[in-house]
Design a protein that fits this description.
By secondary structure, the chain is mostly beta strands. Helix content is about 15%, strand content about 40%. It comes from Pseudorhodoferax aquiterrae.
């Protein structure tokens, strides 16, 4: 099976490359390769009520929080964030972390990450209202 796209979406020091964007899975799932640079600014704790997320670390390590559980995921480890759970990740190490991320269903996909990249790359300080609007449009909410 061929990769659907070679597009790399850069959001600061995080990149997303979608290997499956949902178009060939009838919207059931999307999968991306994510690279998180050391000490990268990462998304704040958030939840998505209608999408499960699974991450598997391939290289490096990610500190991953799901609700009240915090784990350091090494290469080969995975973590499941069921829909509705508050989750967050960071790369506290000295080397880039590379992971596969699966979203099910595929309602969180390349469009969301392109929209976030556009808001954060607009120049000047990020507009929190525009960022919240993008998140809401894609079914994502900041943790309260």
């Amino acid at each position: 099976m061929e990769r659907e796209t070679d597009e790399v979406i850069a959001i600061g020091a995080i990149t997303m490359r979608f290997l499956v964007d949902g178009t060939t899975t009838d919207g059931h799932m999307a999968m991306a390769e994510m690279v998180v640079q050391p000490q990268a600014k990462v998304p704040p704790p958030h939840r998505h009520d209608d999408v499960d997320e699974t991450i598997r670390v391939i290289e490096g390590a990610l500190t991953y929080r799901v609700d009240d559980e915090v784990r350091v995921l090494q290469a080969g480890d995975h973590c499941f964030s069921p829909r509705g759970s508050v989750h967050h990740f960071s790369n506290q190490g000295d080397v880039p972390a590379r992971a596969l991320v699966v979203f099910s269903p595929a309602s969180i996909g390349p469009a969301y990450f392109r929209d976030v990249a556009n808001v954060l790359g607009a120049g000047g300080p990020p507009d929190p209202h525009a960022f919240s609007a993008v998140m809401a449009r894609h079914g994502i909410a900041l943790a309260t």
